[in-house]
Prior knowledge:
This protein is α+β, with helices and mostly antiparallel strands and about 450 residues long. About 65% of the residues lie in helices and about 15% in strands. It has one domain: Outer membrane efflux proteins (OEP), CATH 1.20.1600. The two termini are about 30 Å apart.
Amino acid sequence: MRASSCTVAALAVLVVAQPAWAAPPQLTLDQALRAARKANRSLVAERAHLEQAQTNLNLAWTALFPVVAAQGKYTRNNIAVSFPISTGNGAAAGPPEVLTIQPYNQLDGIVSFTAPLIAPPAYAALESVKTGVRAAQADYETSLTNVLFAVAQAFYSAGIADEVLAARQSSIEVASATAHLAQTRYTVGAVTKADVDRAELALIRAEQAAREARFGREQAYRALSTLMQSQGDFTVEPNSAFVLTPESDGLDTALRLRPEFRALELGARALVTQSHAYGWRWSPTLSAFGNARIFNYDNFAMQRHAWAVGAQLDWVLFDGGIRDAQRHQADAQAREVRARVEVLRDGIRDDLANQRGLLDTKRHAHDAAERQVALAQETLDLVRTQYEAGSVAELDLLRAQDDLTAAKEALAQAHYEVALADLGLRRAAGTFPAAAGQ
């Protein structure tokens, strides 16, 4: 059976009977997921980790950008060095000029630059870093999926806790009515004091069970509030579900949507590109350089400035085998990641089949639990009528009450298991959380 056909039928029944004191506004699953996206502390840390990975791309670009540096320097020399030079010939010669090559107070200003012109290893390394950043983005999406999956589980747990509490409060009303009936019949001498005691004991057990259910509800809501980082009061609305689209039901689509699969594939691709970058280190690199200087003394050209530009070829002919070792290591790591990709592919395929079967099984279990509640309610009504007529013992009535309470709690558990099975199928198919909380 298709997941899309059973999701609505199974989860539409998750309507919680709200107790009288439940005044806070209702929270849908979409709202819970959006709140967790914004405020969950684990996701805040994961986003900071992703920003660190993205910074690596800026670092990789620096290998292709020119580097410009400036320097100013003051030097106090212990002696000034200068000598006169002639500016002409014979009688027409003017007074000699003084060439100062080292003043007492020496000032120098230098601006230099280097720029890569042809750097094959840098291009391959840049592409490897780009792929690595995309892999880090997929890793973040995987963490996001895990956190939101936990939020959805906590959301459904809170909804089921509401339903269990409602069932146990209903059992208090039933037990109270039975105790009142037993007391009335005891007054007219129709039953013994032991029957009244048993009815009151059943009421005490029902009240204690309700207290335990209330504590469980508080725990469930506290866990959901922590995941969402929400301090306000609210009640959940667990019948808010989203449906798988028909095209999201296949393995190929699931592999495309699952972020952990993309992360492994991109990681393998980044390692292959990194291996190429190590191989390109055998090639020469060509760069340009230049510098300009200004100073407060003379050079031998009788100028107080100088500049130079040029090109430089660098070629490492032997490095002891470091480049080859790094390349072989990257190749081995890429083979390992590719093998993990195939393992994950098999796991996703099995998860899809298992989750489809599980959802179908839980849907039928839910239908059976609904039928059990109806039968238990019918049986209780019949036994109560017979008890009022004096044709059955009180123990039969108490047993029927217990059976109804157990059936209602089993139905609540069936609601929860159907919701989790639906959630697991959407996660296996890769449509969670992409179809919600955007």
